[in-house]
Description:
Number of domains of chain A: 4
Strand order of the largest sheet of chain A: 2-1-3-4
Number of strands of chain B: 0
Helix content of chain B: 40-55%
Order of helices and strands of chain B: HHHHHHH
CATH architecture of the largest domain in chain A: Up-down Bundle
Largest interface: A-B, 51 and 44 residues
Mean pLDDT of chain A: 89
CATH class of the largest domain in chain A: Mainly Alpha
Mean pLDDT of chain B: 80
Distance between the termini of chain A: 90 Å
Strand content of chain A: under 5%
Number of helices of chain A: 27
Largest sheet of chain A: 4 strands, parallel
Structural class of chain A: mainly alpha
Helix content of chain A: 55-70%
Number of strands of chain A: 8
Shape of chain B: extended
Radius of gyration of chain A: 30 Å
CATH topology of the largest domain in chain A: Fumarate Reductase Cytochrome B subunit
Oligomer: heterodimer
Structural class of chain B: mainly alpha
Largest sheet of chain B: none
Amino acid sequence: xxxxxxxxxxxxxxxxxxxxxxxxxxxxxxxxxxxxxxxxxxxxxxxxxxxxxxxxxxxxxxxxxxxxxxxxxxxxxxxxxxxxxxxxxxxxxxxxxxxxxxxxxxxxxxxxxxxxxxxxxxxxxxxxxxxxxxxxxxxxxxxxxxxxxxxxxxxxxxxxxxxxxxxxxxxxxxxxxxxxxxxxxxxxxxxxxxxxxxxxxxxxxxxxxxxxxxxxxxxxxxxxxxxxxxxxxxxxxxxxxxxxxxxxxxxxxxxxxxxxxxxxxxxxxxxxxxxxxxxxxxxxxxxxxxxxxxxxxxxxxxxxxxxxxxxxxxxxxxxxxxxxxxxxxxxxxxxxxxxxxxxxxxxxxxxxxxxxxxxxxxxxxxxxxxxxxxxxxxxxxxxxxxxxxxxxxxxxxxxxxxxxxxxxxxxxxxxxxxxxxxxxxxxxxxxxxxxxxxxxxxxxxxxxxxxxxxxxxxxxxxxxxxxxxxxxxxxxxxxxxxxxxxxxxxxxxxxxxxxxxxxxxxxxxxxxxxxxxxxxxxxxxxxxxxxxxxxxxxxxxxxxxxxxxxxxxxxxxxxxxxxxxxxxxxxxxxxxxxxxxxxxxxxxxxxxxxxxxx
Amino acid sequence: xxxxxxxxxxxxxxxxxxxxxxxxxxxxxxxxxxxxxxxxxxxxxxxxxxxxxxxxxxxxxxxxxxxxxxxxxxxxxxxxxxxxxxxxxxxxxxxxxxxxxxxxxxxxxxxxxxxxxxxxxxxxxxxxxxxxxxxx
Lengths: 598, 136
C-alpha cells in the first residue's frame, strides 16, 4: 500500500499549524478568565449541561439554525459549507477506516482517491457506494460555494442588503477556502480520467478531461498538490482570520451553557466571543444607524473587529461611542454574542481616567421613607418630564387601593444605568449603592418603575431582595387578577416596543395584554425583537438632534402605517421623543388605562 | 472690619484677551451643537442633581467658556448623566456629550475625534448599494 507522497506535506503542515496556534490561543484565553467566571465553570463543569451544549453546537455550528430562520437561502449557504464539509471529512474518515482496517495515516481521509484509485470490489466492497456518496456531498458543498459567490455579486436574494467589509487577511483566507472544493473536484476527476474510478460526477468530469487529452499522471499530481496547498493555506490562516469562529463557537456555546457571563472587563471569555464572530454582517442591516443615517462603520462586526485587531484599536473608542445601545444587533446576532456588553467594556476602559468615586456626597441626607406594607414607586428621571405617566400611575394605585411610596416625587436619584452605559462604572456603583439603601431601608414589598431604563437596571444590575416590576407588568397583573376593572374603548392603537423593555428585558406580551384589554391593538411591520429604536436612547452621546430625529421619524412612520388613533408606548423617553414630532398623539400605557378605569 | 458688615471683594472682571481658548476650541470640535446654546438655563431648571445641591450646569459651562476652570472638575462629578437636560434643551444642544467632554478635557485625557475610517470608500460603497437597490 502506497500511502505517502510529497504533496501531502502542505496539508500536514497546515493541520499542524492550526493545531498549535488554536491550542495556544485557547489555552491563553482560558487562563485569563476572571475569578467569577472560573468559579462558575468549576461549579457547573460536572453537571449535565454539556448535553444541551452539544445539541446547540450541532444546531448552530453545523446546521446554522438561527441564520436559516432569518433567510432560508442564507441558512442553506452556511449549512452546506459547514455541514457538507463536516460530512465530507467524516465520511472520508469512515471510508478510510473501512478500506484499511489495519491502520492508515490521517491524510488518507482527505486524499483517499489518489492513494486508492483502483475500484476493487474484492478488497473493499462498498467502494462504489462511497464514491457516489462523496460526490453527492461534494455537490452539496459546491452548491453552497456557488451561493457564496453569488452573494458576493448580489446579496439581496440571500436576505442581506449590505455585507461586511472584510480585512485583507479575511479575504485571503476566503479565497483559499473557495479554492478548496473546486480543486478537490478537479483532482478527483483527474485521477478518474486515468483510472476510471470515482462517483457519478467525478467520472463524468474525468471523461471530459480524458477527451481533452490532458489526462496524465503529471496533471493529476499537480491538481492534488494544488488541492493540498489550498487546504494548507486555509488551515494556516484560520487562527488569524474570521474562520477561527468555526471552532471557537463550539467553546463559546459550551461556556455559555455552563453559565459564564461577560463582566465589565475584557476577559478570556470576551476573547472567545470576539473570535466566535463569523463576521457574517447580519448585524449591519438591522442597525438604525445604518438604516436611517447610512453610517456603516460602527456596527457589531466592526466594533468587535476594532477590539480584536491591534491595528484598528485606535478607532475602538469612537466606534464604541457611536451606538444607540438599542440591542437590535444583539437580537439579530446568530452567534448570540453580547455585543452591548463588549461595547460597554470599551467605554469603561476609555472613561477609567476620569471615572472617580465620591461625586455624590450630596445624596447623604436623603433618607428612605418607612413604607412597610406599601409598594415603592420609582418614576425615573424621564417621567418627571412626562408627568402624565406618574399622575396616571397614582390614579391607578388609588383605584385599586394600593398604598404606595412615590420614591422620587420631589427629588430624583438616577438609577445609574445612563452612567454605566457611558462607561462611568464607579459613579454608577455609587448611585446603585444609594438607591439600594433607600429601597431596602424603606421595607417596601415591591418596586414598581415607569422607566424601562431603570427597570432593566433594577433587574439586572441591582441585587434587590424584593420583586421589581415595570408598570405595564403591574397593570397587566391587576387586570388579570380582577383588581382593576377597565372598559374597552374603541381607540385604534399601535404599540412601540421600547428597546430597554423589549429586547433588554423580554417584556413583549404584558403591554400588549393591557392594550388589548383597553383598546384595539393594531400590528406593525417591525415589532417585538424587530422594533425600531426611537433614536433618543441615552446610549449614544455623539448623535446630534437632526440624526436622532431621522431615526425617530423612521420609527414613527412604522407606527403610523396602520393609521392608528394613538401611538402607545411604555417608556417616558420614547414618549418624549414621539411627542416632539407634534403631528401624532402619543400616550403611555398607564395614561390610556387611567383614562379607562370603570 | 467685620463690624461694618462689608469686606473687600476680589476683582470680578474677566479679561478675554488672557483666556487661552484651546480647551474651548476642543470642546466645540467635539460637541458642535454647543454653538447653538442661548444660555436659557432650561438644563439647570430640569436638573436632577440640581434638585439636591447647587450644581448648576449653565454656570459651569459659562465658567468653562471664560476659562475659569478652578473646581469645575469636582463640580461636574455631581452630574448623574440622566439626560433630562438633553430633552428639555430648546436648541438641541447635546448636553450629555458636553458634560462628558468637559470632564474629558479637564482630566487631560487624549481625545480621539470621531472620524469615519476610509470615508471615500464608504461613499463609493453606498453609491453602489443605491444603484443596486434602484435596479431591483
